[in-house]
C-alpha cells in the first residue's frame, strides 16, 4: 500500500483577525531581516508585505499560526532571492563610495556596516545576513537561497574578504573563511 | 570568531526605525494573490478539458485540482514557446526569461503548477551526477525542490502538479510521487521489477493521471499511485514508457503507432521508414514523425489522422504548451501551427549564450533528452 503523505484539510482557513494579529507580531522581525538583505526601507517594506501576502494566500500549506512565522521568513528569503535574479540587483553596487580599507574602525559607526554591506553583490550579502544575523547553517542558507552548500561557502568567503577590507580585521578576523560552519 | 560581525548586524537591525505594518494592505494583496491562483488553477484545468475534450472524466480532474488548491499554472499554460539557452529559461515565446541557479539545465517539463526544470552540474541526462529540480512559477520565480535524483527518467503529466520517479532501496523499486507545489512526497509505492533497466538508476516512469507507468526489462507496470494497486499492462511496451496526454507511442520494425493507454485502442498507425519514430505533443493530440529527411517532416493529428508538412528538420523543433511547433531561427522564435503549417516569427531576440557551463546549449521544454 502506498504511503500517502498527510496534508492539511483543504478548507483550512485563518480569520482576518488572526492573520492581522500575526502580521503585527511578525512584522518587526521580518522587516529587520528584509532591510539587512536589501538595504532599502521601501524595498524592505515591499518584500515583507509580499512575503506575508504569499503566506496568507498559501495558508493551506502553513497549517497553523505557530508555523506561520517560519513559513513567512522562508518565503521572504526566497522572494528576495528571486528579486536578486530578476531585477537590477544582479548589478553589483559601485565600490567607489568607500575606501578599500577602514583604518580605524569605529564600532559605534553603524552606517559604516550598512555601507559595507551595500558593496557586496546581493547574494553575497544575503549569505552574510542569513549566516551571521539569522544564524543559519551553511546547509540552511543553501536551502534558503536555492543554491549548493559550496556556493554558499564560496560566496560567504568572498563576502567576508570584502568586508574585512572595508571594516578591518577587528570586525572580520583573518581566520574567518569558507571553512566556518 | 564571528561574534563581532554578528553583533554589528544585530545592532544595526535593532536600531532600525520600523514602519508600522499595514495589515489591510497585506490582506488585500493576499486575497488578490489567492484569487489569481484559483482563477489560474481553474483556467488551467478547464484548458485541459478544452484540449482533450473528454468531459465526463476531466470534470473530475477540475474538481480535484480545485480541491487541492493547486498553484497557479505557470509559463507552461501560455501558448508561447518555452526553451532554455544555457541556464536561462525563456517562456511566453521568448518574451520573458528567468535564470536557474545551477550549472546547467538538463530538461524541462510542463506541469499544471508551472514549468518543472531538471538541472545539475552539466546538461547530461544521465551519468552526470545529481539531478536537481526547480519549479518556475507564473511570476518567473524559481522555487528549488528538495528532490534530487540520479540517472532517472522522471514522469510528468502536464495536467497535474506531480513529479514521479523511481528509487531502488536494497533491490526494491519504489515509485515516488512528489507534489511540486508543496514540495512533499504524496505517494511511495513498491513496484516489482528486474534490475537492469538499461543503465538507469531505477526504472523510467511516465505519468498519466492517477496511473504511473513503470518500465522494466520485460513488462511495464501500471501503478495507481493513489491506491497502491500495481498491475501489468501490454498497452505500453516494456522498457521506456513513452506516454503523453494519456497516449503512448509504440513501434515495430515496420510500423509506428499511438495508442490510448486507458482503452488500448490504436489511434494512429503509420508505416515506419528506417529508424523513424513518433514524438507526441505534451497533450498527446499531435505526433511529429521524426525521420532522416532534413528537408521537411510530417505532423499528425492523432485523432483524425490528418497531417501537415513542416519545412526543416524534425529534430530542430519543439512543442509549445498549446500543441504547436516552434524552432529558433536567426535569434528569433518561429512558431508553426500544427493544423495549418503556417509559421510566424516572434519579435523577441534570443541571445546566443545564456550562462552556465554550457552557455550555448538549447533545450526545448517538453522534449525528452534521455539517452
CATH level-two architecture of chain B = 7 Propeller
> How many beta-strand segments of chain A?
0
* Most extensive protein-chain contact, per-chain counts: A-B, 61 and 55 residues
Average pLDDT level of chain B: 81
The count of domains of chain B is 1
| Strand coverage percent of chain B | 35-45%
Structural class of chain B: mainly beta
For the secondary structure, the number of strands of chain B is: 28
Distance separating the two termini of chain B: 49 Å
Termini separation of chain A (Å)?
A: 41 Å
Shape of chain A: elongated
Q: Quickly give the structural class of chain A.
A: mainly alpha
* Binned strand content of chain A: under 5%
Order of helices and strands of chain A: HHHHHHHH
Highest-level CATH class of chain B? Mainly Beta
Radius of gyration of chain A: 19 Å
Helix count from the secondary structure assignment of chain A:
8
Write the layout of secondary structure elements.
The complex is a heterodimer of chains A (about 180) and B (about 375).
Chain A: H1 16-38, H2 41-57, H3 59-62, H4 65-86, H5 110-118, H6 122-132, H7 138-145, H8 149-167
Chain B: H1 3-14, H2 23-52, H3 55-67, E1 83-85, E2 88-91, E3 96-99, E4 104-111, E5 114-120, E6 131-136, E7 142-149, E8 155-156, E9 162-169, E10 172-179, E11 184-191, E12 205-208, E13 211-215, E14 220-224, E15 229-233, E16 243-244, E17 247-251, E18 255-260, E19 266-271, E20 277-280, E21 286-290, E22 296-301, E23 307-311, E24 318-319, E25 325-329, E26 332-336, E27 343-349, E28 362-364
Antiparallel strand pairs in B: 1-2, 1-28, 2-3, 4-5, 5-6, 6-7, 8-9, 9-10, 10-11, 12-13, 13-14, 14-15, 16-17, 17-18, 18-19, 20-21, 21-22, 22-23, 24-25, 25-26, 26-27
Helix pairs in contact in B: 2-3
Give a quick set of tags describing it.
heterodimer, A: 181 residues, mainly alpha, 8 helices, 0% strand, elongated, disordered C terminus, B: 371 residues, mainly beta, Methylamine Dehydrogenase, Chain H, four-stranded antiparallel β-sheet, 39% strand, Quino_amine_DH_bsu (chain B), WD40 repeat domain-containing protein (chain B), transmembrane helix (chain B), transmembrane (chain B)
Amino acid at each position: 500500500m502506498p504511503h500517502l503523505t498527510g496534508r492539511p484539510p483543504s478548507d483550512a482557513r485563518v480569520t482576518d483577525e488572526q492573520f492581522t494579529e500575526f502580521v503585527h507580531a511578525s512584522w518587526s522581525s521580518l522587516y529587520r531581516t528584509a532591510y539587512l538583505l536589501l538595504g532599502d526601507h521601501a524595498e524592505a517594506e515591499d518584500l515583507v508585505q509580499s512575503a506575508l501576502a504569499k503566506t496568507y494566500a498559501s495558508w493551506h500549506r502553513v497549517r497553523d499560526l505557530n508555523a506561520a512565522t517560519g513559513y513567512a521568513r522562508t518565503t521572504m528569503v526566497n522572494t528576495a532571492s528571486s528579486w536578486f535574479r530578476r531585477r537590477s540587483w544582479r548589478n553589483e553596487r559601485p565600490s567607489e563610495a568607500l575606501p578599500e580599507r577602514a583604518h580605524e574602525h569605529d564600532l559605534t559607526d553603524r552606517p559604516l556596516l550598512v555601507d559595507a554591506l551595500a558593496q557586496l553583490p546581493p547574494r553575497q550579502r544575503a549569505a552574510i545576513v542569513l549566516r551571521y544575523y539569522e544564524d543559519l547553517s551553511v546547509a540552511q542558507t543553501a536551502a534558503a537561497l536555492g543554491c549548493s552548500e559550496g556556493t554558499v561557502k564560496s560566496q560567504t568567503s568572498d563576502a567576508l574578504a570584502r568586508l574585512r577590507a572595508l571594516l578591518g580585521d577587528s570586525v572580520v578576523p583573518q581566520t574567518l573563511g569558507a571553512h566556518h560552519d | 570568531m564571528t561574534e563581532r560581525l554578528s553583533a554589528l548586524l544585530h545592532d544595526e537591525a535593532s536600531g532600525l526605525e520600523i514602519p508600522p505594518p499595514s495589515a489591510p494592505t497585506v490582506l488585500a494583496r493576499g486575497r488578490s494573490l489567492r484569487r489569481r491562483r484559483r482563477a489560474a488553477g481553474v483556467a488551467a484545468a478547464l484548458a485541459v478539458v478544452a484540449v482533450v475534450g473528454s468531459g465526463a472524466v476531466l470534470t473530475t480532474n477540475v474538481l480535484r485540482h480545485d480541491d487541492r488548491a493547486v498553484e497557479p499554472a505557470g509559463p507552461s499554460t501560455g501558448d508561447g514557446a518555452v526553451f532554455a539557452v544555457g541556464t536561462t529559461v525563456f517562456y511566453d515565446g521568448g518574451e520573458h526569461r528567468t535564470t536557474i541557479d545551477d550549472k546547467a539545465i538538463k530538461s524541462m517539463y510542463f506541469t499544471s503548477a508551472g514549468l518543472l526544470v531538471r538541472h545539475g552540474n552539466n546538461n547530461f541526462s544521465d551519468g552526470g551526477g545529481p539531478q536537481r529540480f526547480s519549479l518556475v512559477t507564473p511570476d518567473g520565480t524559481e522555487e528549488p525542490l528538495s528532490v534530487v535524483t540520479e540517472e532517472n527518467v522522471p514522469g510528468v503529466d502536464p495536467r497535474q502538479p506531480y513529479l514521479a520517479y523511481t528509487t531502488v532501496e536494497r533491490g526494491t523499486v519504489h515509485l515516488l510521487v512528489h507534489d511540486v507545489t508543496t514540495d512533499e512526497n504524496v505517494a511511495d509505492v513498491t513496484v516489482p521489477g528486474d534490475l537492469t533497466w538499461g543503465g538507469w538508476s531505477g526504472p523510467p516512469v511516465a505519468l498519466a493521471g492517477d496511473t504511473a507507468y513503470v518500465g522494466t526489462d520485460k513488462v511495464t507496470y501500471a501503478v495507481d499511485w493513489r491506491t497502491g494497486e500495481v498491475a501489468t499492462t501490454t498497452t505500453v511496451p516494456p522498457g521506456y514508457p513513452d506516454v503523453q496526454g494519456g497516449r503512448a507511442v509504440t513501434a515495430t520494425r515496420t510500423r509506428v503507432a499511438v495508442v490510448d493507454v486507458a482503452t488500448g485502442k490504436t489511434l494512429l498507425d503509420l508505416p515506419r521508414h528506417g529508424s523513424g519514430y513518433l514524438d507526441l505533443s505534451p497533450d498527446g493530440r499531435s505526433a511529429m514523425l521524426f525521420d532522416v529527411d532534413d528537408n521537411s517532416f510530417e505532423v499528425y493529428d492523432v485523432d483524425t489522422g490528418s497531417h501537415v508538412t513542416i519545412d526543416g528538420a524534425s529534430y530542430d523543433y519543439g512543442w509549445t504548451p498549446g500543441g504547436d511547433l516552434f524552432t529558433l531561427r536567426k535569434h528569433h522564435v518561429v512558431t508553426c501551427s500544427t493544423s495549418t503549417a503556417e509559421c510566424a516569427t516572434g519579435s523577441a531576440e534570443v541571445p546566443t549564450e545564456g550562462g552556465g557551463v554550457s552557455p550555448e546549449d538549447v533545450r526545448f521544454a517538453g522534449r525528452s533528452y534521455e539517452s
